[in-house]
Amino acid sequence: MDPLTQHQHELTRRAFLGKGATGVGTAALALLLGRERAQATTASPVGGLPGLPGYPQWAPRAKNIIYLFQNGAPTHVDLFDYKPKLKELHGRAVPDEYVAGKRFSTMTGKADGKLLLAPIEPFHQRGQSGAWVSELLPYTAQVADDLCFVKGLHTDAVNHAPGISLMLSGAQIPGRPTLGAWLTYGLGCETENLPSFVVMTSVSKGTSCGQIFYDFYWGSGFLPSRYQGVKFRGSGEPVLYLSNPAGMSASTRRAMLDDVAALNAIKFRAHGDPEIATRIAQYEMAFRMQTSVPELTDLSREPASVLDLYGPSVKEQGTFAYNCLMARRLIERGVRCVQVMHAGWDQHNSLTTELYTQCKDTDQPSAGLVLDLKQRGLLEDTLVVWGGEFGRTPFIQGNLDDRKRWGRDHHPYAFTTWMAGGGVKPGLSYGETDELGMNVVRDPVHVHDLQATWLHLLGIHHERLTYRFQGRDFRLTDVHGKVVSEILA
Q1: CATH topology of domain 61-238+305-487
Q2: 279 in helix, strand or coil?
């Protein structure tokens, strides 16, 4: 190992512990090489990937998190944040005091003189909570009393990739560990047979404004790579190269892996590189997933009543509905974090076309997931989050006379996310924007505040879950953030 690489490894906590006489790397390696080859396909309370000593730091309200991430930024003023004033002022120029000094994307530039655009569909108050939900989301409206709407969110980013990276990793620049990686690092995972952090992606059919799914959206950053998310594919085999090639039996594969593990163990003892231990662990995981993944994706025992909750495309691999059902099945089997990402919410000129498609594809599965978890008793300790990286402008992007091309630009100053289960108050709308949905005027929640709240619900103090890298202690919430205690049940 060259001196620079060796120095970099010695700066990490796990590298230091791995070199000790009782280092966790060596202990984990011995455990991997010596344990019996379990073939069980359900989570076990014993084993799995261990977390840090003393974690969780208190009794958690949530044990798992399912993040239904809507790439492209759903329009809060058309879906959840009802503003009658927008309808009243439809077609008039936005008042200067609402946009003065504010930065928008280069597609808008200066917002001076931009015309206000009314919500494209009516809103109604729903359930006993009276939450405002658009007619675009009829299924979400039916579960409004189970949801906690955070309407005062704001962010620092004005473009998609930086905004998504900030929401998922705490930094606009790629390279930091993402939420699932932090959770697995701190809390570990119960299951030995599936990854602790799983990601699934989907795009509406026929959409023309999809967002790119960059791998750093589920990366481990400077944490060991065993903590990164494992992406399940939307067609064919969910995970490539799990099946044995023709002519290779399970016993032959097992013998080959044992020999490779022995060679890697020699290399690990010589160099102490934690990535070698990661490689051994991943080989073992892949071997166990040969059994666990086919069982996971077998929907033959799911009752028709459950499948109906998710909608007609639930059996079609790669759809948002299918991925939502898989999310439930994954957390049932002990997976810590499931990130379900759906692209296409970037309606710069397609509010009256593609927004309808996006809502149709995601509305019923999202609500169905909440109902499914609730009826199984899983919602109490599973946190479900729905939202995107920012909101969309109350003013129009495009020509007001051409309704087929109406759009809204990126809007970091106010947007809405909803959460369910896992210790948040149901039937609550927290925070308030001004009469145009432009700026937060009551109970603002920054992205780092939201992240601090997620960690709190999972039994973690957001300032204490850190990792030292290149001389600095990093954390998900960077150097900001406070728990939003008002939304805790």
Answers
A1: Alkaline Phosphatase, subunit A (3.40.720)
A2: helix
